[in-house]
Amino acid sequence: MKSLIYRVGADSTDLGGGMYGVLNENLTFTYLPIPERDDSVSTPKYRDHPMKDEIPERILDKHIHLDPNFKQGTYGNICVYPNGNRNPKGQKLLQFEDKTPVRVVFFSALKDEKENLRYGFIGQLIASQIKKIDELSDEKKTINVHGQRENGEGDSRSVIAISDKKDPRSGRFSKFIEFASFRDGCYRVRPDLIERWGGWSSNNGYCQRGGPWTPGNHKKFERWLDKKLAEKSIQILQSNW
Q1: 137: Cβ–Cβ under 8 A, 6 or more apart, which residues?
Q2: DSSP code string of 86-106
Q3: What secondary structure does DSSP assign to 133-199, as a single string?
Q4: Which of 104, 128, 107, 133 is CA-nearest to residue 118?
């Protein structure tokens, strides 16, 4: 099975909400998605999130960009922006449309109890379908935030990865799996893991912005991740936080 690796979640940028999810000492965590830009969606608002007391007042009434949606088993991304530019995140996902199942793995930057930034895997979807939004029924579109938007800013040209809801391998991890560290001026995959995974698709393990990424050897990466899930007795939960 091939793996695609995406960074998700709130961060220090304006688009990221200027905040981070929380990593606890025992490696449990609270996932915090980025703000949604379209008020027409039906996702929860930040005042409904478990971290509401730590979220800036200015965005408490904003909808959450709930993507990935671990409860629904979906992840979406725009393929082509309204200005005609291609989005590599959506384009890469679309390249795997006829190669399912695909292991779509997610990581986030979280703040630990000492306010240190840590990078690690937080969940995955075993995508049994990858579909353009305009190929889905109106009812099916609503299982992902990109299909709920009414403003049409490129979302008709978005793509959604969909997992089988009965697949126990798809969901949020109960514990954080750290894989990167700060070196050479930014956050990068640890050198020992680059070697173990047979490589990484960006220079010197860079993973701070952009993506998606792929391991050099998909089977080696898959074996490593499955081993970590088993070693740490990590549950895979069909819940968003």
Answers
A1: none
A2: B-HHHHHHHHTTTS-SEEEEE
A3: GGGS-HHHHTTSHHHH-SS-SSGGGEEEEEE-TT-TT-EEEEEEEE-EEEETTEEEE-HHHHHHTT-
A4: 107
Q: How would you write the pLDDT of the chain (241 residues) with one tens digit per residue?
A: 999 999 999 999 999 999 999 999 999 999 999 999 899 999 999 999 999 999 999 999 999 999 999 999 999 999 988 888 999 999 999 999 999 999 999 999 999 999 999 999 999 999 999 999 989 998 899 999 999 988 755 577 899 999 998 999 999 999 999 999 999 999 999 999 999 999 999 999 999 999 999 999 999 999 999 999 999 999 999 999 9
pTM: 0.96
DSSP secondary structure code for residue 10 in this structure: -
Strands 29-30 and 158-163, sheet pairing: unpaired
C-beta separation of 197 from 142 below 8 A: no
Which pair of structure tokens corresponds to residue 39? 């008020």
Q: Are 36 and 61 in contact (CB under 8 A)?
A: no
Q: Which residues pair with 5 in a beta bridge?
A: 105, 213
Across the strands, what pairs with 199?
Answer: none
Question: How far apart, in Å, are the Cα atoms of 37 and each of 59, 61, 139?
Answer: 11, 12, 22
Sign of the dihedral defined by the CA atoms of residues 205, 90, 9, 239, in that order: negative
CA distance 22 to 195: 29
Distance of CA 179 to the CA centre of its chain: 15
Residue ranges covered by each domain of the chain: 2-237
